[in-house]
Design brief:
18% strand; 5 helices; alpha/beta; 133 residues; Rossmann fold; 41% helix; five-stranded parallel β-sheet
Length: 133
């Protein structure tokens, strides 16, 4: 069985990536393969990378407050490219009142500052669509 493949992405103009690097390391330590796109990625670049890398999970981190635009745009592009079976999770600075809207567009979970990395690993393991052969 192949490893769970995760694309870790920083959409938008955020200049801080310490948090996503901590998460990426935790996912690697849990046996997942992690591809990190780097800073300042457009929704189109993220979806293209998810398609090219044949990932099982896309993890998005936004600190800028632009999640209300970026997450729906990424979800729309993923549907257009047939990536409906890819688990999408989000994190960063996302106000609690915005979480229902993020889930409504298809983001499965939001993990805020201080989230336990073990909880994120467990969530991915329990919710990734099993297309791992």
């Amino acid at each position: 069985m192949r490893k769970i493949r995760v694309l870790a992405a920083k959409p938008g103009l955020d200049g801080h990536d310490r948090g996503i690097k901590v998460i990426a390391a935790a996912l690697r330590d849990a046996g997942m393969e992690v591809i990190y796109t780097g800073l300042r990625q457009s929704p189109e670049q993220i979806v293209s990378a998810a398609l090219q890398e044949d990932v099982d999970v896309v993890g998005l981190s936004v600190l800028s407050g632009a999640h209300d635009y970026l997450f729906p745009k990424i979800m729309e592009l993923m549907r257009q490219k047939g990536l409906d079976d890819v688990l999408v999770i989000g994190g960063g600075i996302i106000p609690e009142e915005d979480v229902p809207a993020m889930k409504a567009v298809g983001v499965s979970a939001i993990f805020g500052p201080g989230a336990n990395t073990g909880d994120i690993v467990k969530f991915i393991q329990e919710n990734v669509k099993r297309r791992l052969n």
